[in-house]
Structure formats: C-alpha cells, structure tokens
Amino acid sequence: MTGQAKARGISALPTGYLLHQTIDIKSERKFQLATQSLFLLIVLAAGTAALVFALPLTSGWSLWGTIAVTAISVLVYMAVHEATHGVAVHVLTGIRPSYGMAFPFLTAGSRAYLSHRSFVIAALAPCIVWGAVLLAAWFLLPADFRLTAYVVLTLNFAGSAGDFVLIGAVRGQPSGALVQDDGAKVRIFVPREPGHTVDPGHSTPGQQGP
C-alpha cells in the first residue's frame, strides 16, 4: 500500500473496526450545552478585549448600513466556513464532501473515515485560515469596515466552538481510532483489539457495533 493511497483516506470501514461512540451534533444535549457555553465565553472574551484595549470599532456608516453590511458578511462567512471544512476533507482524503442545511446553519459532511490527525486538521481549517485572513482585514481595511471585520472575526472563533468540542471528544479516543462526520452525526470507530491498529489503507468493509 503506497503512502499516496493512505493519504487519500478511505470510504469503507477497515476490517476489525467497531463503532465506539456516536455524537449527534444536532440533538445531543451534552454536546449542545458545551458548544453554547464555549460560544458565549468566546463572545464575552472578544467583547471584553474590545473594551479593555479600546479597539477602534467605530464606523461612519449609518446604524442600518452597518447592520446590513455586517449581516451579509456573517451569512457569507457561515457558507465559507463550511465550504472550508469540505475543501480540507477533500484535500486530505480525495473524497468529495456533501453539503446541507439545518436552518439557519449550513453543514458539511463526508463519508470518509479520518484519522485523529486528519480530523483535527479538517475541523480547525476554517478557524485558522479565516482567522488569519480576518485579522489581516481588520488591520488593513478602511476604518468603516473594522466593526464588521471584528464581528466576523469573533464569529470565526465562537462559531468554531462545536469544532473545538468535537476535537476534545476525539482526542481521548484509543490509538488508531477513525472518525466519520456526515454533518449530522460524528461516529468514532476503534480497532477491535485494544492496542491493535488496522491500517486504514486496507479499505475492505469492516463490521460495526450494534
């Protein structure tokens, strides 16, 4: 099995893997509570930073003009955020992602089984890429755009709260675990025998737990 084949990921569960955990990201209360709490903490931190450091967030636009531009920017960002997840998964695995909508949110999912490392990279991709872009925009754009840029920058990190929570859940899994995120549920599969890692390059269908 070549390194290139391994890098592209797999669309079928390898032999010897069992379903270990399922996280319903739309309805699981524990996940929702953790995500919402982290979201609020990040928003509060951003608001506190703006006050403590007296960030220049004033705009010469009218109130409604500022609201309109910011709302449009937020909607565009939400779409770009999920698209970035999808692009990252595609680059890492060679498997095309799928996109959907769970109003008012867009979702990205994939049938690929990702290693812990690949899952973390795909989960953090929007936060890191757009965090850098938006931070640069905040410094480089005209003053009237800074409030909007700061709101979207804050959303970039706060909106990644669910990704951070999932990374925490995956981090504690056994060595060799594989992760599948279809946009609605995250499923974690582990090797049947403790300490035994099945090469993900072998794409013969495996067995799932009940």
Automatic annotation (TrEMBL):
Classification via Pfam families: DUF3267 (PF11667)
Domain of life according to the entry: Bacteria
InterPro entries with a match to the protein in the record: DUF3267
Bilayer-spanning residue ranges: 38-55, 61-80, 119-141, 147-170
UniProt keywords, alphabetically: Membrane, Transmembrane, Transmembrane helix
Coiled coil: none
Protein name stated in the entry: DUF3267 domain-containing protein
Organism: Arthrobacter sunyaminii
